[in-house]
Amino acid sequence: MDLRLESITHRYGDVEVVRDISLDVPSGRIVCIVGPSGCGKSTLLRFIGGLEQPSSGRVMQIGEPAEDSINPLTYVFQDFALLPWRSVEGNISLILRDHGVRGERAERIIADVLARTKLSEFRKAWPRQLSGGMKQRVAIARALAVNPAVLLMDEPLSALDSQTRELLMDDLITLWTRQPFTGVYVTHNLAEATRLGHRIVVLSRRPGEIREIVEIDKPLSGRDMADPDLVAKQKHLWNLMRAEAEAADKELVDE
Amino acid sequence: MSDAALSSSSSSSAAAQARPVRFRGGGFRPRSPRWVGALVFVVLIRFLEWGTRAGFISSLTMPRPSEVFDTLVELTLNGGMWTHLAPSLSRLVVGGVMGALAGIAVGVLIGLFSVVRAGLVPLVAALFPIPKIALLPLFIIWFGIGEGSKYALIAFGTFTPTVVATYGAVDNVDRTLIRMGQSFSLSWSTIVLRIVIPGAMPGILSGLRVSLAIAIILLVAAEMLGAEYGIGAYILQAGSLYDLERLFAGVAILSLLGVLMSGGIGIIERRLLGWRS
Ligand SMILES: Nc1ncnc2c1ncn2[C@@H]1O[C@H](COP(=O)(O)OP(=O)(O)OP(=O)(O)O)[C@@H](O)[C@H]1O
Ligand SMILES: [Mg+2]
Questions:
Q1: Is the domain A2-66+150-254 a CATH 3.40.50.1000 member?
Q2: Does any CB of chain B come closer than 8 Å to the CB of residue A185?
Q3: Angle, helices B231-240/B244-272, rounded to nearest 10 degrees
């Protein structure tokens, strides 16, 4: 299933947040969205998953999601959004049960996603007992459990320390390599974008418009951050971002 | 030379200044070891007992605790305790449960629906400050002089604080969790039952503590205004005869009731909110 954003514009009151964004999210690839703070990345992601409606424009779903996809458009949130009153297992089973998946089938899915996120031992643990990185792995396991057609991730690693971030980034790449999923990944971090993105969309400062779309064709698993090609791409992204960030700063001074 | 001088001077100055960092944390986390609460009661009662025996507290101002205790024992033995406690408990349970359940239900509705919120919040704000006891005559006209008016008074008295606590608690449920529920296409009822209500539970339970204390106060008031049996009636009889032992025996029963209810809510909290600590 592909997604297509058709000239999305949105206003909160008088403030125009994103302007005329058109974008394709092809199936089986990861699209990264980068841009300065407040340029509407999270807002855009909420439109893509249908959690909010843009003032104009629309998000189209092209083709049908796989038959066994329980929740085609699934989010991984920056702050994990785990229910603190449910165990690791309970957080996943709640969602499966509501979609009519119970008993042995649910059991199989839970065991499988916990194994894939290396959480099998923590099945009965409460969220408060887990570290930030483990909480985010639970959230990823929960997202994988519904077999999403598109995974929508809003800075999923931002609340974590840099080592944990490295490890989880590796985990994400492994997950994708084993079973490619479609992803939209919002981030501030250009290194994350160059490691995980097949297509990197650079937004301008608010109102967010597409500045440039950078394609990276290298397979995810073989990406080496010392590769001169990737270094050059990252540098190019950084120049784009820096120009926007500086302009945003100037605007603040002018006001 | 100069090196040695430097190192010795720096080490000696370090020795002169070395002291443990002053501890500034701690506090602001009250815990309650059980025995402290009991100790306060014991000390207070011991003091009164000693004061009344030694004679510097006259028995006209304060009954002797041991005699209050004797009165309680006697009341239990001659069956009077049960005659008074049974109707009081049933009024408290029926009225309190009705008021609390209705309050939680209305509070959740206010928390969920804009129309209900717009319509009922001003009404609840208008009802809250009314001293409910003042409405007892009205309730007697509506529900009769019997149990009905007492149930209604207690229910009404617990209802308003429960509503306010509940919708405040629902408002405070983390919106990102609700958004998470929507993002997984959970049904509306699952979002309410499995996300909103558990999230509001801590606030609802602490509101319930207040509501149930109010229920006891109203119970006594209702029984004083018109009941043959009940703790309130017992206290009223004793009071009109200036029988301080029986008055205090009745008051002691009420206090005990309050402690038991608060303990009961504590147990429920530990059961339902075990995920917190
Ligand atoms: N519900 C809302 N109501 C009004 N304004 C909003 C709302 N949500 C976001 N905004 C505004 O829209 C702009 C874009 O917000 P958004 O969260 O999408 O930015 P972002 O690119 O995700 O920023 P960050 O990088 O800091 O996460 C911001 O200026 C924000 O203040
Ligand atoms: Mg954001």
A1: no
A2: no
A3: 150
